[in-house]
Amino acid sequence: MIKDILTDAEHRMRSAMQVLHDDLGAVRTGRASPGLVEKLPVEYYGTPTPLLQLASISVPEPRTLMIKPFDASTLKAIEKAIQASELGLNPNSDGKVIHLNLPPLNEERRRDLVKHVHHRLEETRIAVRNIRRDAHNDLRDFEKEKLISEDDLERGEEELQKLTDKYVEEVAAQGKTKEAEIMEV
Known about the structure:
The chain has 4 helices and 6 strands. The chain is of the alpha+beta class and 185 residues long. It has 2 domains: 102 residues, Topoisomerase I, Chain A, domain 4; 68 residues, 2-Layer Sandwich (Gyrase A, domain 2), CATH 3.30.1360.40.
């Protein structure tokens, strides 16, 4: 019973970490990365579709992304989606592929990106703590219903806290890594 609650809590915490990892992958650093645009929604036959499903994305040079649509008719829609995004990038198209040149980040923009990363880290820490709270409430309910003993409750709470600490530390480690990437000139 306790094991089920802890397993569920760990699964949910791992999911929160995966969302954070994906979000941080889309935050721009000094280098070009396909993660920057692969989730960008593109209007495709009236449906917002992730760019990754419509084109191959490669990095021919450190500050350049090359987007090659699988279907040439989607080229204009992809260009429009890039221009409408918050990326602030101008797509250059030759009719077959789109080149995105990433300008170097200035100091102010780097600081804004770090603030954004810190905000995402805090959201993930809150999510992990909320998962801990839910699991803790479940453990207490089991103890009230006499399904587990007080000792079991205490052991379960200790395990839950260890799990929470592990994921909060992981959030901090990912944040440090991303901040170092952003601030690297």
